[in-house]
Amino acid sequence: MGGLILLATLLVVAPLILIFFYLIKEGVGAINLDFFTKVPAPEGETGGGLANAILGSIEMLALASVIGVLVGVSGGIFLSEYPRHPLMPTVRMISDVLAGIPAIVMGLVAYGLIVLQFGFSGFAGALALGFLMIPIVVRTTEEVLKLVPLTVREAGLALGLPKWLVTLRIVLPAAAGGIVTGVMLALARVAGEAAPLLFTAFGNSGINLDPSKPMSALPLEIYRGATSAYDENQRLAKAGALLLITLIFLTSLLARRASRRK
Question: Are 53 and 237 in contact (CB under 8 A)?
């Protein structure tokens, strides 16, 4: 039995290790100061970097976090603290459906809501990523809040505090570490999504900090570089993929360490 478990573990881990070593071999040479400070060079020319994509990813993920945290934490609190509310089954069903919707469909939803009215923008990309974060944050928040002992709530209620204040001032702080862990895992999950950004953020060859305009992101530049016929673009795409996987790995590692401490 022990041998089978070890074999299964190796089969699961092997693809990740192979991908990681391949990207280190092919892309680490392109990671230098220019990679973080310059925009991609024109097609067929050497040099350049992915500064526009790095800044765009940071900005859109920050905006998506606002949407994902506000809606996701609110939904998790509702499911955990008000299980007998008439709307609870509806909210749970919506959360479960959202968790199963493909990322590209979320991009189409954001396209219909924002892009058709106002054009491609970082806001539209952030909305699509925020939609993807919501079910993860909802489920994590609900499970973490359920771990807070019932006696803690009863102590607050015994002091004469209303339930909403007990939840806000006592229950939420007690579960804050787990909620932050869930948000970090959700960020790691959506950081590598390219499909919804193709319909929303669209991409930008220059550095753009205005989220109301088209904006680049690491997944977009990786996709475009990987499908390019030029070796230089492919090399930048592999370096971008290496950076993205490293950031996702570190975020997941930090989230799991924080979760274990709790």
Answer: no
- The pTM of this model reads 0.88
Computed on alpha carbons and rounded to an integer, the radius of gyration of the chain in Å comes to: 21
Query: For residue 244, which amino acid is it?
Result: L
- Closest alpha carbon to 203 in 132, 120, 128, 123: 120
| CA distances (Å), origin 117, targets 103, 110, 138, 212, 218 | 21, 11, 29, 12, 25
To which H or E segment does residue 150 belong?
Answer: helix 150-158
Nearest residue to 174 (alpha-carbon basis) of 191, 192, 193, 155: 155
Q: Any idea of the CA torsion for 142, 128, 23, 13, to the nearest 10 degrees?
A: 30
DSSP 8-state secondary structure symbol assigned to residue 84? T
pLDDT tens-digit profile of 92-102? 898 888 888 89
- Cα of 88 vs its chain's centroid, Å: 26
Distance of CA 169 to the CA centre of its chain: 28
Helix (H/G/I), strand (E/B), else coil: 196: helix
